[in-house]
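[09:14] KT: can someone run the structure on this one? pasting the chain below
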Amino acid sequence: MKTKINVRKKIHFLIERFFIVACLAILIATLSVGLSYNKYDEQEKQKNNLQKIHSMLSQMVVPSMIIFDFLEVRRLLYMASGSEETFIIIDSDGTIIMPDYGKIHFSKFVSHFYRSISDCKNLEVTYRYIGDKKYLINCSILKNNDVLLSDKNVGVLLSFTNYKLFSFSHTIFYFVGILVILFLLLIFLFRKMLYRQLLQPLIILKNNISGISTSHASSTPYLDEINNAPAELVEIKEAFERLLLSLKDEYCGRIEAEKVNALIDLAAGVAHDIRSPLTALDIIIKDIKNIPEEQRIVIRNAANRINDIANNLLTQYRQSKNSELCDTITNIKSELISELLLSLISEKRVQYRNDAIKLMINIDEPAYGKFSNISASSFNRVLSNLIDNSKEAEADLIKIRLSALDFGNQSKLCLQIQDNGCGISSVIFQKIMNGENFSTKEKGNGLGLPHAIKTIEKEWGGKLNIKISDGVGTLIEVLLPETTTPKWFLSKLIVSPEDVIAILDDDESIHQVWDKRFKDVYANLKFINHYNPQDLLTSHKDNLSSINFFLIDYEFIGYNENGLDIIEKLNIADRSYLITSRYEDFHIRTRCEKIGLKIIPKAFAVYIPIVSNKRANKCMCSVKYI
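[09:31] RB: done, structure tokens below
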């Protein structure tokens, strides 16, 4: 089937065609007016000539009619008549005198329209059809001008002149010739002017735009200047240049944004890959006891450095991807304190990498899975200021510890920041506790500690205690009330000796971590290990009911499906746990809460309590959420 191609005509062709048609129309209209005027002029001349002929012929015919010399009258009529005109006389008695009586159609016309001399007035200068031809008819009364007869009417003189539809004079040919030459000259001049001032700038503008559109390496969005162009074309050129500049800026911005996003995604992937072996390394570090302390410190510092790198990468990822977590950043809500603290310490280590200062952090295992109602951004700002204060106090060692305390009806998290700096004098300390903005720094404003006290005590419902000793160092203790664990977070695993556990993770070290963690509780637990989603989706699809619970990673290298997709596809959310470093992602949390799925942060896999639940009979519902 042939496809009809719509070929659009070019603008210069359209303009020239329109102009030529318009000129032809004007030329035809002018010619029509000229021809009409010429016709009118010729008719007027013809009428004037007839009037003169009638007058001269009347003077010659009247004497012959008085003496009734009709032969002379006919001779005179014959001499006056020709191929174009015929003259007829009707005397006072109604007798028709014709030069040629063979023209019977004239006599019939006279007998039909003429009755008396008074009818002559009706036939004076009229156009009538006689037979199939049209004639100009003129009638004049013949009078005897003799004094004795006192102007007696002796008859009428009728003339019949052939009507010519077109009658041209020599003048009209000159007029038409001059008009045609004039219009040809106008067309030539207009076409030249049109090309120079409109078509040429348009073609230049079109070629420049086409060149830019087909060039992938255009270095400038500016078009060449177009000379003699109308203002509208210049405005179009300038508007197009502005559009090109805007598109170039947007294109460059998108390229940069895509590069940044690609780097951030890469960083998140690297952090994810680091977290898995790091989790296994943390397990080993906890249990190594047979190597010297110095070597254990080296290993622990190396692991901390790797953890810092992973935390910094994940922090960048969260700041860019979690735009929908603005409420989390600015508003107070339940936050995992241990993860916020680890990320902050990693940032501070990077900040102090060129300073002779050591940051040490210790998180008690019971405090790893604890939450408190705070603002994440304020927490980072307050803790950062407190750590900076220790550095400004010329400390070279800052120890940070997070522990969980039980105060009867209220459980609290205790965050301690201890340094070996010069400390705070009792005088300055008293001013700070009284709410005064006091600072010993050159450019300080004294807002650090007062702001920290106000934020912690009034906004978070906590308590800030400061223990000082002149010249010895400072211990700052922050107490935060523990809050209810969010629905998406799993704080404890309860297993039974008969449980069958399926693990889906593409990192072998995570399988080893879970193997060690569970076998510390039950040595004979049965594991089914899967290293890619396809294994779980196909190999054991018919045996899913025999598995008590699943530990499933979120991301898999080389697969579009994530752990959440697999859990939803297999409909196993009621006995599955999602293991991921991206637990802070708003979309992941929302999806998990929607299907009742619990999350275990990957770093928390080392510390999550695994509780034994002995029973006599095997129960398929052995997993409990806490």
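[09:33] KT: thanks! The radius of gyration is 57 Å.
[09:34] RB: yep, looked fine to me
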